[in-house]
Structure formats: structure tokens, C-alpha cells
Design brief:
The structure holds two protein chains of two kinds. Chain A has no helices and eleven strands. In chain A, strands 2, 4, 5, 6, 9, 10 and 11 form a seven-stranded mixed beta sheet that branches. By secondary structure, chain A is mostly beta strands. The N and C termini of chain A lie far apart (37 Å). In chain B, the strands form three sheets. In chain B, strands 2, 5, 6, 10, 11 and 12 form a six-stranded mixed beta sheet that branches. In chain B, strands 3-9-8-7 form a four-stranded antiparallel beta sheet, with no helix packed on it. Chain B is globular, with a radius of gyration of 14 Å. Chain B is built from no helices and twelve strands. Classes of the chains: A mainly beta, B mainly beta. At the A-B interface, strand 4, strand 5 and strand 9 of A face strand 6, strand 10 and strand 11 of B.
Chain lengths: 116, 115
């Protein structure tokens, strides 16, 4: 079956514009995670979904960031009024059962966002 | 709360030499530990994980890691490096399941393999 897919693979935008990043998880995976990877840094957790609800949004950097998930499938991460410090690779991951601590997260290839 | 420290942002080895990538963790609960590999322009791929039980964990591509509670370490090793091992490696820790299973990552180690 298909893995986690993300679109677009690359996005260049101007400062102040809004962007939407999309994640298609593996079919049947109930948990979905967003991470951010800035140049020279590790991955930072942003938000995770159990089904369509987001119990933990603690990693979202500011109120310019939001995410939603519909149909326990596709998720969209939206960044409003983008700033240059938002430039990063945004990675999405999904897993089968968030209740299982050993549950493996499968990562997508990421979206590289560049804010000019 | 948990954290991960990876010593050495860049490691260079000769082909055929031992690979040792260091990872130390901090966790308020017994940790679950993971090593991921990221090839250029690709997503992260799980190499191996420690949950409970045997402290020496074997993964894909000949890699293994040993969980040492006394040293709070989970170093990644491979006896003989291959050119195809050149990639970035991330160590990660997971806290208790109530936290939604999010992973806390180290800053990564870029492995270079030279002829």
C-alpha cells in the first residue's frame, strides 16, 4: 500500500502570504503527527491528531499556525501571514494506534517551505 | 518531560570502518527509544527501536543499538560502514502513551562515508 504522502513537495512564498500544506496518511492509521525541521536542527513536534481531534497542540509556534483533519484521513497545516522564520521542512507522520506506546510512526517525504 | 542529545553533528568514517553515533536521553518515565535515518530528499525511516526487554536491539541494514540505563545512552553502531550508509541519523525518545506518543528528536548526526 501507499505510504504517507505530502503536497506540495516544495513551496516558495512571499512573506505575509498564507500557505496550506497537505498530508495524506496511510489508510487506516488513526494517529497523525506534524513536525517541523529547520535547517541544522532536529525535528520539532507541532501537533497530533487522534482521529479528527487534536488533543495536543502544544508545539504550534504561534496562533498563525493551525491544522485540521477531516474524515480521519487528510490533514492540512495552515500557516497564515508567513514569516521568514517559518522556512523549514514540514514533515507529517501517521501511525496505526496512538494508544500503543511502541506504535511506529511512518513519515512522509515532507514539504520544503521557503518564505522570501 | 524528555529530551535527546546527539553528540557530533557530523561524523566521518572510512568505508569498512566502525560506525558509532552517540545518543543520550533524559526521560521521567522508562523511555522508548528510536533511531531514524533520513536519506536526501526523503522522509524518515525507522532503523530500530527499544521498548522493553533485550537491551541490544538489531535493526535494518546491519545497524544495532544498546540501551544502557545507567549511562542514559542509546548509541547506534554498525561494524562496517558502507557508502550507502551516508545519511542523517536521528535519535528520538517517546514518553508515556498519555502524551499521544509524540516523539522528541535529537538534532541529528550527518554521517559521511569516505573511500
Amino acid at each position: 500500500g501507499a505510504g504517507v504522502s505530502q503536497s506540495p513537495s516544495n513551496k516558495v512564498t512571499e512573506k505575509g502570504k498564507d500557505v496550506e500544506l497537505r498530508c495524506d496518511p496511510i489508510s487506516g492509521h488513526t494517529a497523525l503527527y506534524w513536525y517541523r525541521q529547520r535547517l541544522g536542527q532536529g525535528l520539532e513536534f507541532l501537533i497530533y491528531f487522534q482521529g479528527n481531534s487534536a488533543p495536543d497542540k502544544s508545539g504550534l509556534p504561534s496562533d498563525r499556525f493551525s491544522a485540521e483533519r477531516t474524515g480521519e484521513s487528510v490533514s492540512t497545516l495552515t500557516i497564515q501571514r508567513t514569516q521568514q522564520e517559518d522556512s523549514a521542512v514540514y514533515l507529517c507522520a501517521s501511525s496505526l494506534n496512538w494508544l500503543v506506546r511502541a506504535d511506529e510512526q511512518f513519515f512522509g517525504p515532507g514539504t520544503r517551505l521557503t518564505v522570501l | 518531560a524528555q529530551s535527546v542529545t546527539q553528540l557530533g553533528s557530523h561524523v566521518s568514517v572510512s568505508e569498512g570502518a566502525l560506525v558509532l553515533l552517540r545518543c543520550n536521553y533524559s526521560s521521567s518515565v522508562p523511555p522508548y527509544l528510536f533511531w531514524y535515518v533520513q536519506y536526501p530528499n526523503q522522509g524518515l525511516q525507522l532503523l530500530l527501536k527499544y521498548t522493553t526487554g533485550a537491551t541490544l536491539v538489531k535493526g535494518i541494514n546491519g545497524f544495532e543499538a544498546e540501551f544502557k540505563k545507567s549511562e542514559t545512552s542509546f548509541h547506534l553502531t554498525k561494524p562496517s560502514a558502507h557508502m550507502s550508509d551516508a545519511a542523517e541519523y536521528f535519535c528520538a525518545v517517546r514518553g508515556q502513551a498519555g502524551g499521544g506518543n509524540k516523539l522528541t528528536f535529537g538534532t541529528g548526526t550527518q554521517l559521511k562515508v569516505e573511500l
